[in-house]
Design a protein that fits this description.
Layout: H1 5-13, E1 57-65, H2 70-89, E2 118-124, E3 162-168, H3 171-184, E4 189-198, H4 226-229, E5 244-253, H5 255-258, H6 263-270, H7 305-309, E6 322-323, E7 326-332, E8 338-348, H8 352-361, E9 371-381, H9 394-397
Helix pairs in contact: 1-6, 2-3
Length: 398
């Protein structure tokens, strides 16, 4: 990207912000690392793991469905529900015959702790192909994720029939849960890809930081705003009410280059101060930027990340999304750089109005010089499991 002298000077003289590195949108609920809390309820109209306060560890695993009949798919989802319910509740595994393999892999010891585990199950557009005769039941805006400017998507790390977002306070709990589910659905679900993430503790306080050093998730919708911004409803197939569209993006950060950029330039690109997370025209992280008082971008550049992502106009108010990001650190990238970055996960009521509208506004974002999306997909988080006799996708499959 070419930056003229005036733009460079403006960015260097502005004291910018340290906000979300991938989609700073409005709201009042920051992504915080919570202290020990009660176990999220497995049953309810919506799945846990969406508005649940983020846990420290996560894995996102996509699967292709290998079965070929509706009845086999129904049994697979019932098995998945039974395992998820047990894992999220905790307890002692039921012992089998002495000659049989152990009932549990033993990673967590003889008794499974709940550890605030949530397992959020979503379906991809490919599940609504001809295999199961469900084309007329596909959620309204669920499609295969396309390619945006700056993407370098690896097809092996994109899409899938089914996505599991597994989160807990400890990485061994997440590993245990994925391993248990893979074992119990073997032959029915084939893992397509997986990526593990972690949430950094607040440093020193407030929202957790991403690997660019900026607070990520400061402006999120509150749970009270879920009905208008997050949960699917009007216009959707009846079975989909209470679900949510999920956008997943794996984003590598070119940290070696980012670390050689001046602090003033970093803050100008993001639109927030790195130390406090405050907008450039504010004092604290939760202050709302006032773009009406800065129409020419004297304080917050017109192409600052947070300003492009959310211009804070009446026309863009309904494009707000609920972000649930995690950092990842996965060895060495091709060419010898660090393979580290962000697992961007966001929920919304409509993909076109939400994530895609935001992404299109970010086409000229200077931050794109320092990041490279390489995987992910669009999914639809199923409505919640409401009782002991309910199961994932019951409304969809009957």
């Amino acid at each position: 990207m070419t930056v003229d002298r005036r733009t460079a000077l403006k960015r260097l003289t502005v004291g910018a912000v340290g906000a979300a590195a991938v989609a700073a949108l409005p709201g009042t609920q920051p992504v915080l690392l919570p202290a020990a809390e009660e176990t999220p309820s497995f049953h309810g109209p919506h799945q846990a793991g969406i508005f649940t306060p983020p846990q420290r560890s996560a894995v996102f695993a996509a699967f292709d469905v290998a079965v070929r009949s509706v009845e086999a798919l129904r049994q697979t989802l019932q098995t998945l529900t039974a395992r998820a319910r047990f894992l999220a509740t905790g307890g002692e595994p039921t012992a089998g015959p002495v000659t049989a393999p152990p009932a549990d892999n033993g990673v967590l010891g003889p008794t499974i702790p709940a550890d605030r585990l949530t397992i959020t199950v979503s379906v991809g557009a490919s599940l609504f192909d001809r295999r199961f005769g469900m084309a007329d039941r596909r959620p309204r805006s669920l499609t295969t994720m396309g390619v945006f400017p700056g993407d370098a998507l690896d097809p092996t790390l994109c899409h899938g029939d089914l996505l599991l977002q597994i989160c807990a306070d400890n990485p061994d709990t997440v590993h245990h849960a994925l391993r248990d589910i893979a074992r119990n659905t073997r032959g029915a679900l084939l893992m397509r890809f997986r990526r593990a993430g972690f949430l950094s503790p607040p440093r020193p306080s407030g929202t957790a930081r991403n690997l660019m050093g900026f607070k990520d998730g400061t402006s999120n919708p509150t749970e009270a705003e879920g009905a208008e911004l997050v949960w699917a409803g009007v216009g959707e197939p009846g079975w989909a009410v209470g679900g949510s569209y999920q956008a997943l993006r794996f984003i590598r950060m070119h940290t070696e280059f980012w670390d050689r950029v001046s602090m003033a330039e970093q803050e100008a690109i993001i639109g927030r101060r790195r130390d406090s997370g405050a907008p450039l025209d504010g004092m604290t992280e939760q202050d709302q930027p006032d773009y009406e008082r800065d129409p020419a971008g004297a304080l917050t550049a017109l192409d600052a990340h947070i300003r492009l992502a959310n211009p804070r106009t009446p026309q863009t108010a309904n494009s707000r999304i609920l972000r649930r990001p995690y950092n990842y650190d996965d060895g060495v990238a091709p060419g010898g750089g660090l393979d580290a970055g962000l697992i961007f996960c966001a929920y919304q009521q409509d993909l076109r109005r939400g994530f895609e509208a935001v992404q299109n506004r970010l086409a000229d974002d200077p931050l794109t010089d320092y990041i490279r999306p390489f995987g992910g997909g669009y999914f639809f988080a199923l409505p919640g499991v409401t009782s002991e006799v309910d199961w994932y996708g019951r409304g969809l499959l009957g």
